[in-house]
Amino acid sequence: MRALSRHIVAALALLFAAAGACATPHVFLVQNSGWMEPFYSDPNSQFKPLVGALAGAVVQPGDALVLAAFNQSLPGAPSPKALASFKVDGKTVRSRVDAALAGLDTARKPNSSALADTDLGEAVQAAIASALGGKPGIVWLVTNNRNSPNNDQATAARNREFYELIHRGRAIDKVVAFPLRMPVQGKHYQANGLMIYAFAVGQEGSRALDGLLASGRIARVITERPARLKPLDRDTVRLVPAQVEDAPGVAFSQAPGGALRADVDPDARTPRASVRWQLENTMYPYTIVSATLGARSMLAGEDRKIALASSRVENLAPGKPLPLGSTMQLPVAQLPEKWSMAALKSAGSAYVLPGRIELHLANQRLALSQDFRQRMAALFPGDPLPDIFTPPPSIQASTAVLPLEVRVHYGMGPLAALGGLAAAALAAAGAAAWMYGRPRVAQVTVEDELRTMRARPGTTQPIYDKAGQQVAMLKTTLFGHQLTDLREGAQVRLGR
After folding, report:
1. Could you tell me which of 10, 4, 21, 257 has the C-alpha nearest to residue 136?
2. What three-state secondary structure class fits 112?
3. Contact indicator for 349, 358 with CB cutoff of 8 Å
4. Cβ-count burial of 207 within 10 angstroms (0-12 exposed, 13-18 middle, 19+ buried)?
């Protein structure tokens, strides 16, 4: 890799600090090679405002941002070259990016009037290795999709290198692209559109990108549907529950986060359920030409095969639902009984058994939709770079993991019954304690003198004659009184 701008290296500490605070580092790479001339010279170009608006939408307080221009690195002219680097605070991101881009223009080669060439792969690798330092983050690449290092006209070969970087680069976990229509006319060239790539580096970067896509923050600026380049071997389809049959007391639904939820009545003991799904292709812009389907459920420690009504899928276009019947086992044997401690603890709420459904697509063949090909050809005429959307032949299988939670809803009846029993037991205990603590009255006759004595159960007290001599002991229990330790010849008796 060629020498990089020292400003990029200087931004590393800032990015590391942001990543350490659970923020997301963002690197924006803006192409300024010769082929970009019309985007800079056309007075009606919305190129720079678009970059500022996108950065303002996706970069959040606490995140770090590096903005850099790129073309091709040459001695004396490193690329990428940092234009701004900062950790986001109270100031608006967009205004700072707009200010940094205001003076940017197309670059020329060192000591030459020739316009600079373009090396897309070099720019992305520099951002990952140097700007991010191998740490997770998101690299945004804004380009006109013309890759020509050293003015190489064999762009197809250069594009294949870029293709390899995307699909085989281990550091890159996810890539989406936004082809945008932006007709511009310059002094030397004209163009119809731009491409914005988002490279998620590492799993944390992928989660951050997924969060941005789901939140709609990107859609505030770019209404175009994101095209997926990577991965093509996971999260390729999703199951949407449509109907549950032959399983009284069982209902499937979609949770807000996209997971599946099975709500089960505590009295349901049906060992299996027939579930009708809608199978959806989530790999825009690819059509699943053909694949073999297999499914399993992992619930309550049980790994069970799901019987599918059809084991084949053909010509499934993205976003087009396909009905799919299935029969799956339910973990009814593992559900707590209504009188169990687990059920009592969950009374009034839900006892949750987490699990998942795995859907496997084998012998998978993908094809880029013709509509997408035609749109790319219109935006980038004569440019072979859209070939990067061609699925790699090595990807012939994929797996979709669908989180599933079984929720058993226990009523308050058993808990209320136990509460009643507990209250009765407490009342009985309280009554016994009161009875135990209440003084008992005993009448004792000593030498023809009737005396009234009071004592609590469990106590013993002496009895004296008229001369003050102890003649007996009075023992009191829950069941009455008795005389003990009677002195020989003493005239003592209970009662009159």
Report:
1. 21
2. coil
3. no
4. middle
Give the rounded percent of residues in the chain with a pLDDT score beyond 70: 79
Question: Residue 260: CB partners within 8 Å, gap ≥ 6?
Answer: 239, 241, 252, 253, 254, 357, 402, 403, 404, 405
Q: Label residue 182 by pLDDT band (50, 70, 90).
A: very high
Dihedral, CA of residue 342, residue 344, residue 348 and residue 352, to nearest 10: 10
Per the CB < 8 A criterion, the answer to whether 224 and 193 are in contact is no
Distance CA 71, CA 110 (A): 12
pTM of the model: 0.75
> Which is nearest to 373 in space by CA: 280, 287, 290?
287
Measured distance CA(102)–CA(99) in Å, rounded:
5
| Cβ count within 10 A of residue 363 | 10
Q: Is the dihedral of CA 382, 388, 389, 391 positive or negative?
A: positive
Strands of 440-446's sheet in order across: 449-455, 440-446, 492-494
Task: Annotate 15-61 with DSSP letters as a single string.
Answer: HHHHHHTT--EEEEEEE-SGGGHHHHH-TT--HHHHHHHHHHHH--T
pLDDT in tens, 186-233: 888 899 999 999 999 999 999 999 999 999 999 999 999 999 999 988
Each residue of 223-257: pLDDT tens digit?
Answer: 999 999 999 888 888 888 887 776 676 777 777 66
Phi, psi of 298 (to 5 degrees): -120, 100
Q: What is the model's pLDDT at position 346? A: 46
Joined together, the tokens standing for residue 318 give 């993205």
> Which amino acid type is present at position 275?
V
Contact yes or no for 281/364 (Cβ under 8 A): no
Each residue's pLDDT tens digit, 367-392: 888 888 888 888 888 766 566 777 77
Contact 70, 80 (CB under 8 A): yes
Phi, psi of 451, deg, nearest 5: -120, 145
